[in-house]
Design brief:
Layout: H1 10-24, H2 28-40, H3 44-69, H4 74-78, H5 83-100, H6 102-114, H7 124-143, H8 149-174, H9 194-201, H10 207-224, H11 230-261, H12 272-318, H13 324-339, H14 343-370, H15 378-399, H16 402-405, H17 408-413, H18 430-459
């Protein structure tokens, strides 16, 4: 019989909330809301609402989905769709969060924030090479036994980093660069579609798919505090998330506002890293830049260790014939190589992957949470996913760099989008997913009614 589920105190909620915040928020999460604020200008708040949906709410729902389904990770969560699909989805998520995009970004983000603006265009490749070589060398060394000093450093750095951010916020609120509500809207897309575009910008945090990968760690921590009942675990996750992810949401809104106000002095930057450097210099001078660069580097280093470790552990568990150490070498080696393409290139090429993965992740999360309502019937999962995956592929092609999206083959394929509403907004998967869900639920309930009728006939 299941042991009595322990009632947790507010202190426990703070512990889990702090863990949630620490896992999801890194220096990379600073650059996208600031850039969003510069894009949206006067519409910064409505764009921020959309950003919070994908940047904070979905990651929380991802963890709740793992709790509701008693899954041991992303593979278990996706397994109702099929074992091969679950393996494919897990590998794609691990690669995206690992050496393809998120982990290389942990090196390029602090480099862009703290160093790029002080180097000429011709000098940047050489110094990025040296910086990323040292960065991922340390990542590999620390990831061999990641539970030691790197975690202790992280517990010190995160509060210090937030303290610096609080100083910048305080100064900015007391003496803003300009009025955010009067800021120019630098992107036409935000004139009438700020919420939706903010929603899509939230994909860049990668926190939704990170929640699928990291969720088991949160659930394990809650169980370690004495809770065993799935409903209690879900409620603890919600309450803790209201604290940890709630703080993250406040910081996001502050950063989006800060980006909008910066347009009073600075022009639209290529990325949020450059903008954040300019803002730090404006308020704190060169001292602020130095402190920001140092803390961003160290904070991103802890994130890099976490991502590299998760990648190696997840794939070693699925493919045990390849050792953890080998997977770790693959993670850090590839991350180093890809980091040297630069932050803007990484963002450009990660966008199509996220446009593909996010619709599949969103539908998987919703289905997992709602699965008790349809008896965890895998047919509902399968039908929804089948109808989601095709438009997700189309969105990925449309969002790819011009070398792919403007090719003759891509242009002919994208003609299919003419038949799907929301294609121009990157949301053409929504209607097909709903149709697939309806078909799956119809099949399920017809099956339930048929079984009930058969049972009644047998009784008669």
């Amino acid at each position: 019989m299941e042991s009595q589920s322990k009632k947790l105190s507010f202190k426990h909620y703070l512990i889990i909330g702090s863990m949630l915040f620490g896992m999801f928020f890194g220096a990379g999460n600073l650059i996208f809301p600031i850039h969003l604020g510069q894009l949206a200008g006067a519409h910064w708040f409505t764009a921020g609402i959309g950003f919070l949906l994908t940047g904070t709410l979905l990651p929380l729902l991802a963890i709740i989905a793992i709790a509701v389904t008693h899954s041991n990770g992303i593979y278990d969560l996706a397994k109702p769709i099929g074992k091969r699909y679950a393996t494919f989805f897990m590998v794609m998520v691990c690669a995206t969060l690992g050496p393809l995009f998120a982990t290389p970004r942990t090196a390029t983000t602090p480099f862009q924030i703290g160093f790029a603006s002080h180097l000429s265009a011709s000098q940047q490749p050489m110094w990025l090479f040296i910086y990323s070589l040292i960065f991922f060398g340390i990542t590999y060394w620390a990831s061999r036994k990641p539970a030691g000093i790197i975690n202790s450093i992280g517990k010190i750095l995160n509060p210090a980093f937030l303290a610096l951010l609080a100083i910048i916020f305080t100064i900015a609120f007391l003496n803003p660069i300009s009025k955010a509500n009067n800021a120019p809207i630098t992107s036409a897309a935000y004139q009438h579609g700020s919420i939706l575009n903010g929603f899509l910008q939230g994909y860049n945090t990668m926190d939704c798919i990170a929640g699928l990968l990291f969720g088991i760690a949160i659930i394990t921590a809650i169980r370690g505090l004495g809770q065993t009942n799935a409903k209690d675990i879900s409620m603890t996750t919600i309450k803790s998330g209201a604290l940890g992810i709630g703080l993250e949401a406040l910081i996001y809104i502050g950063l989006i506002w800060l980006g909008a106000t910066s347009l009073g002095k600075f022009s639209l930057s290529i990325d949020g890293g450059i903008a954040f450097n300019q803002i730090a210099n404006h308020f704190l001078g060169i001292f602020g830049e130095v402190i920001l660069a140092t803390m961003a580097t160290l904070t991103c280093l802890t994130t890099s260790v976490g991502l590299s470790t998760s990648f190696a552990e997840a794939l070693n568990a699925k493919f045990p014939s390849i050792s953890y150490r080998t997977w770790l070498i693959i993670a850090t080696g590839l991350s180093f190589g890809i980091a040297n393409f630069g932050l803007d290139t990484i963002i450009a090429w990660s966008t199509p992957m996220l446009m593909f993965l996010y619709p599949l992740a969103i539908t998987l999360i919703i289905l997992s949470i709602a699965s008790p309502l349809f008896g965890h019937d895998n047919r509902v999962y399968i039908w929804t996913t089948i109808f989601t995956i095709i438009p997700a592929i189309l969105d990925a092609i449309a969002a790819a760099p011009a070398i792919i999206s403007k090719s003759a083959l891509a242009t002919s394929i994208l003609k299919l989008d003419d038949f799907l509403p929301g294609a121009s907004l990157g949301m053409d998967w929504l209607l097909p997913a709903a149709i697939g869900l309806i078909i799956g639920l119809t099949v399920h309930f017809i099956s339930v009614l048929s079984r009930a009728r058969t049972t009644q006939i047998q009784k008669d």
